[in-house]
Amino acid sequence: MKFFIDTAKIEEIREAKMMGLVDGVTTNPSLVSQTGRTFEEVVRDIVAEVDGPISLEAVSTQAEEIIAEGRKLATYGKNVVIKCPLTVDGLKACRALTSEGIGVNVTLCFSPSQALLAAKANATYISPFIGRLDDISHHGMELVRQILTIYRNYQFKTQVLVASIRHPLHVVEAALLGADVATIPFAVIKRLVNHPLTDVGIERFLKDWQKVPG
Ligand code: G3P
Questions:
Q1: Mean pLDDT of all residues in the chain?
Q2: Known catalytic residue: 207?
Q3: CB neighbours (10 Å) of residue 141?
């Protein structure tokens, strides 16, 4: 499973990259706004740092405008992928952009029927938002399972990118199901690393090391 980092903060990307955990990056307007920087500054830094796919979200809502915005965003780098919303206009834009060789991540997916349409529109990635489904008492991970089954039934090439990940078990379950990608906030990456027994073990070894003569 590929690890994308779900952030627009360059310092988080750099630190995760040092751990070998940045196969790609996903951003969205909310994440960019959290940086307090301009979109241009944010994107230039990420493109300079990351070789893998970088998802940048189009904020237009009409197909022609999404397509024009997508073409412009794609000029930032060959590895830029355009996030299009899962709407009629977003699907039209997805079809058009991918036919031009521009990668598309169809975002805000909340149902298997939506995911089927994204694959038919030739999406590079489909992003089921599992945390937001969990928030309203639906099983987000069940959606991932359904999408994987549908895509495998028909050998669709669209990659399942599990998004809106909130905690370590989301990552583990995505991997158990065989999702192609998990896009993970930096805070969750750190929680994936931590284990109290590791900390206790280090403390004990260091204490015992003091007793070694010489
Ligand atoms: O990758 C999508 C993600 O950024 C949305 O996460 O936590 O706002 O639902 P969240």
A1: 98
A2: no
A3: 20
Predicted local distance difference test score (pLDDT) of residue 148: 98
**pLDDT score, position 16:** 98
Domain boundary assignment for the chain: 2-209
Residue 168 CB coordination number (10 Å): 16
Q: Which of 83, 120, 190, 211 is catalytic?
A: 83
C-alpha to C-alpha distance for 88 and 109, rounded to whole angstroms: 13
pLDDT digits (tens, 9 = 90+) for 37-81: 999 999 999 999 999 999 999 999 999 999 999 999 999 999 999
Q: What pLDDT was estimated at residue 214?
A: 85
Is the CB–ligand 1 distance for residue 164 below 6 Å?
Answer: yes
Supply the residue whose CA is at minimum distance from atom 7 of ligand 1: 164
Top-tier CATH class for 2-209: alpha beta
106 neighbors 94 (Cβ within 8 angstroms): yes
Single out the residue of 120, 109, 101 nearest to residue 84, CA to CA: 109
Ligand 1 within 6 A of CB of 6: yes
| Cβ(29)–Cβ(8) below 8 Å | no
DSSP string, 61-114: -SHHHHHHHHHHHHTT-TTEEEEEESSHHHHHHHHHHHHTT-EEEEEEE-SHHH
Residue with CA nearest ligand 1 atom 10: 164
